[in-house]
Sequence to fold (207 residues):
Amino acid sequence: VIDIIHEEAREDIYRLGGFNLSEHEMKSPVRMSGVRLKWLLLRFFGASIAAFMVFSLLKLLGASTQMTWLGTLFPIFISMTGGIGTQSSTVVSEQLALRSDQRVKFWRLLGTEVFIGFVLGVFMSSIPLILLISIQALSLKHAFLSTGLLATGMLTAATAGTLLPYIFYRLGKDPALVTGSIIASVLDVIGIAAFALTLIIVNAGTV
Fold:
């Protein structure tokens, strides 16, 4: 009975992180990416609704076409970096809680999470890239720049979501503490920083 209760609790934790417990049993990072992808796509759909609202507001305020489309990407930056970072922090926190062979496990987890962050970052950034190019919302180089920084932000978020629980663990703190407001704040900063860098580079005309 205790084992069943423990398993159910773990499943709930993984669902709160935005994916399924079945991922824990997988050995292939590619398959893990596929499991997490469907949850990120759900977040992307919600972010798209917010993006449409931002687009309408900027149009109403008379912003330039370039700034309107760049501003539309803001909710997507925040949602995608937050989603993938939360997934990574949930996995690592749960793994560290097992407290067995931690050092070897952590470096394996770090490599896996970085790989997943790269794969999902490239895939998810390709969706707005195709849209921006197909409707000619931005120039080709600006479209690649903005979505490339989105992918970079997602990779950074996955790395941060892996490192922060481990740092807490090494400091003798409960790594689960990171999965709350702490990691949310860090991921928000990462998303905003990636978006701000996009605006700075595009407006500076350095590309």
Q: What stands out?
A: The mean pLDDT is 84. DSSP finds seven helices and no strands in the chain. Residues 96 and 102 are 7 Å apart (CA to CA).
